[in-house]
Design brief:
alpha+beta; conserved putative lor/sdh protein from methanococcus maripaludis s2 fold; OB fold (Dihydrolipoamide Acetyltransferase, E2P); 5 helices; disordered N terminus
């Protein structure tokens, strides 16, 4: 009886519980999130050569592409000549040497320099004598010994002698005459490095002969060639991005643009102010000028290399706090190594412009480990 009662109770309890249905298999569906994330520190990003840059809005209508050259700015380059004809007796600097402002690069021994130094000495002596004569005439006039006319004459002569002394002093300073008066010093007005040196010891040079060229690598500008059609679309202050041969972008601004076209090239020149880091005078670059007054287009333009294909979809790697995230995008038209993003990105987001294939490989590696 006890066994029967226990069996009945167990059956009752089992019948009261509903039967658990088998778990339905989840349909395969891709959702962006942690599966598309690649964790990477700032040090690792720098070491791998991955380049991150903010996206630009406006589509191809808002960008103007131009080829440019890095040149020294007007205040960043100096051409050094001898201020007087003569023979080169000292050379202190060679090609590539650093130079401080006012530092001597060479000395030219000159007969003209000796004449300038002599004129300075004579003018200074006459000015001193005129000052003494003026002081003597002042005392005589105050004692009522000499006439006022003599005193005024002494004042005029002293003023003329002082003016001549100042002129001789300025001439000697402009020629940079040496202390002994035998030559002139060839000195640099700016700090920088010697970029050209066409001088030989003992050579006779004229005042217009170029001896050295000094440039400051920190004072540069980019001169971009712009077609006549694009000239009205550019205004000073427009944002510019200068791209080097390795694809690294450098931010800049349009400083000015020539109002006319060159007779030889039929192109205008846009002068861009940029950071000097990574640029050298004579270097060829590509410039992208982003207009401030962009048309109604809100499309985003990215480099072609930023777009990668992952599992049949176009993705762009967006910078996050922990690394990067593969973001699905819709790509529009492509041109000159650039592509328009119709959807999937927002203005202000930072994306991988170079090295996205490394993140794609890292993403594929992580999926393989999960399987």
């Amino acid at each position: 009886m006890i066994a029967g009662v226990a069996g009945f109770g167990l059956a009752k309890m089992t019948a009261g519980k509903p039967e658990t249905p088998p778990a339905a298999e989840a349909e395969p569906q891709h959702k962006e999130g942690e599966a598309d994330a690649v964790a990477m520190t700032a040090e690792a990003i720098k070491a791998s050569g991955i380049l991150v840059e903010p996206v630009s809005v406006g589509g191809f209508t808002g960008e103007i592409l131009a080829q440019g050259t890095v040149n020294a700015s007007p205040s960043g380059q100096a051409v050094l000549t001898a201020r007087a004809a003569g023979a080169v007796t000292r050379i202190y600097k060679r090609l590539g040497d650093p130079v401080r402002a006012g530092e001597a690069l060479a000395v030219v021994e000159s007969r003209d320099a000796a004449q300038i130094a002599a004129d300075r000495t004579v003018a200074s002596a006459r000015a001193g004598l005129a000052q003494k004569s003026l002081a003597r005439e002042r005392r005589l006039y105050e004692q009522r010994v000499s006439a006022r006319q003599d005193y005024e004459q002494a004042q005029a002569e002293a003023a003329a002698a002082n003016a001549e002394a100042r002129r001789a002093q300025v001439a000697a300073g402009a020629a940079n005459v040496t202390a002994d008066g035998r030559g002139v010093v060839v000195a640099s007005p700016i700090s920088g490095r010697v970029t050209a040196a066409s001088v030989s010891l003992g050579a006779f040079v004229q005042p217009e002969t170029e001896l050295f060229r000094v440039a400051d690598p920190r004072l540069i500008q980019v001169e971009a060639s712009v077609s006549g059609v694009d000239v009205p679309r550019i205004a000073p202050g427009d944002r510019a991005v200068v791209e080097t041969a390795d694809g690294r972008p450098i931010e800049g601004r349009v400083r000015s643009i020539t109002p006319g076209l060159s007779q030889e090239t039929r192109m205008a020149t846009a002068v861009l102010d940029v950071s000097p880091i990574g640029l050298q005078p004579g270097q060829s670059v590509r410039a992208r000028i982003i207009r401030r007054a962009v048309a109604a287009s809100t499309l985003i333009v990215v480099p072609d290399d930023a777009i990668q294909n992952v599992e049949g979809r176009d993705v762009v790697f967006v910078r996050t706090a922990k690394g990067f995230e593969a973001r699905s995008v819709t790509v529009g038209q492509r041109s000159a190594g650039r592509a328009e993003i119709v959807s999937g990105l927002k203005p202000g987001q930072a994306i991988v412009a170079r090295g996205a294939f490394l993140l794609k490989a890292e993403l594929g590696k992580g999926e393989g480990e999960e399987h």
